[in-house]
Amino acid sequence: MTLDLSSYMVRTDLAVELKEMAEKAEGGPIPGLVEDITEHDGIKITRLDVQSEEASNRIGRIKGHYVTIEVPGLRNQDTTLQEKVTRDFVKEFSAFLIKIGISSKNKVLIVGLGNWNVTPDSLGPLVVENSLVTRHYFELAPDQVSPGYREVSAIAPGVLGITGIESSEIVQSIVERTKPDLIIAIDALASKSLDRLNTTIQIADIGIHPGSGIGNKRRGLTKEILGVPCIGIGVPTVCYASTIVNHTFDLMRDHFNKEGGGNSSQTKQILGLLSELSENERLGLVKEVLSPLGHDVIVTPKEIDEFIEDIANIIASGLNAALHEAVNGDNVAAYTH
Questions:
Q1: Whole-angstrom Cα distance, residue 119 to residue 117?
Q2: Residue from 242, 241, 206 nearest 226 by CA
Q3: How many CB atoms lie within 10 A of CB 46?
Q4: DSSP assignment of 215-259, as one string?
Q5: Of residues 171, 307, 182, 167, the one with CA closest to residue 235
Q6: How far apart are CA 329 and CA 224, in angstroms?
Q7: Environment class of residue 160 by beta-carbon count within 10 Å: exposed (0-12), middle (13-18) or buried (19+)?
Q8: What pLDDT, on a 0 to 100 scale, did the predictor assign at position 83?
Q9: What is the pLDDT of residues 29-46, one digit of tens each?
Q10: pLDDT digits (tens, 9 = 90+) for 107-146
Q11: How far apart are CA 44 and CA 202, in angstroms?
Q12: CB contact set of 324 (below 8 Å; sequence gap of 6+)
C-alpha cells in the first residue's frame, strides 16, 4: 500500500522554496538543478533550470525554467523601487519570449486567473484590467495600427465556483477560435514564507494550474493541454496557518540558539522534542492539532489591498513593455495605471 503523505508536506507554489527544502533534506545541491542568482538595489533574481527527471521528482516541479524576483522593499510602496522591479521583469520576461521563439509578430493571449471579488485572488483580473490589449484594432482597423504593437487579447475567465466551467475549458475554446501563438497566465500562489508574500514574482515556462495557491489541483493551462506555449506568472499572496505555526518554531529555535550562544541543549530545554523533529514531521503534528478544529485557515497580510494593486501594476506595465516595442521599456512607469 502506498501512503499519501501530501497533506503532511509544506504547501508552496514557489520553485525556489521547493529547491530550498529539497536541499535541506538532501544535505546538499540537487543533481540536474542549475541555479543562477543575481542581486542589486534590494532585488534578488533567482533563475532555476530543472533539467532532469531526478531533479523534477526531488523538488516536485516539472522540468523547465523558473525565474523568481524577490523584493522585500515592495512592502514600503517605494515607487522608484517599483520602476526598477518593472524593468527587471521586462528583461527576464523578454528572455522567456526569446527562449521559446516568440517574435514581435506573434499573437498573445493574456489570461488573468482568479476571483476579482476576493482581494488575495484578484491578481489575474487586475493585470488584465491594466494590460494594453490591441486585437480589436487589428481586427477592425489594421491599417491604422501604428508600428511597434502586436496583437494582444486578454480574458479574466473567473473561477469554477462562479462560472461552473473550468478556466482551462474557457481558455481552450478561445484558443481554438482566436489562435494565439502564446498564452500568458497570471494567478495568485501560496508561499511557506511570510516574507515572500506580495513581494515575489515567479515566471515559469511550464504554464500554470488554476487554484494551485489554495490546494485545488485541477486541469492546468499548459502547452500539453492547450497546444500553445504557455508562460505562467504568479505572486504568492496567501499562506496556510499551519505553515505559519510551523515556520514560527524555526524562528524560535534560531532565536534561542542565538540568545544562548549556540547552546543547543538550552534550545532543547525550551522547545523539547519539537526542536529535533524534521520540518514535515512538525508540520504533520501542527495539522493534526489544527485541522479537526477547522483552524488551518488561509492567511493574507492585512495590507493586501495596497500590495495587490502595486504588484499587479508592476506585472501589467512590465508585460506592456515586453510585448509592445512601441512601449518605451525605459519609461515603463508611464504605463502603470
A1: 6
A2: 206
A3: 20
A4: T-----B-HHHHSS-EEEEEEEEEEEHHHHHHHHHHHHHHHHHHH
A5: 307
A6: 32
A7: middle
A8: 95
A9: 899 999 999 999 999 999
A10: 999 999 999 999 999 999 999 999 999 999 999 999 999 9
A11: 12
A12: 132, 134, 148, 149, 150, 152
d(CA 88, CA 314): 10
Written as nine digits, the cell of 3 is: 501512503
Instruction: Report phi then psi at 230, rounded to 5.
Output: -135, 125
Residue 49, C-alpha cell as written in the block: 533550470
Residue 28 main-chain phi, psi, to 5 deg? 170, -175
Average per-residue pLDDT for the chain? 84
10 phi, psi to nearest 5 deg:
-65, 130
Say whether 298 sits in a helix, a strand or coil.
Answer: strand
State the Cα–Cα distance between residues 16 and 8, nearest whole angstrom. Answer: 19
- The dihedral sign for the CA sequence 126, 132, 135, 137: positive
Return the bridge partners of 39, or none. 44
216 closest CA partner among 194, 198, 190, 184 = 190
CA atoms within 13 A on the CB side of 52: 8
Q: What is the pLDDT of residues 275-306, one digit of tens each?
A: 666 666 666 666 666 666 555 577 888 899 99
C-alpha closest to that of 122 among 268, 337, 322, 308: 308
Is it the case that residue 334 has pLDDT exceeding 80? no
Determine the Cα angle at 42 with ends 40 and 187, to 5°: 105
Distance CA 70, CA 202 (A): 9
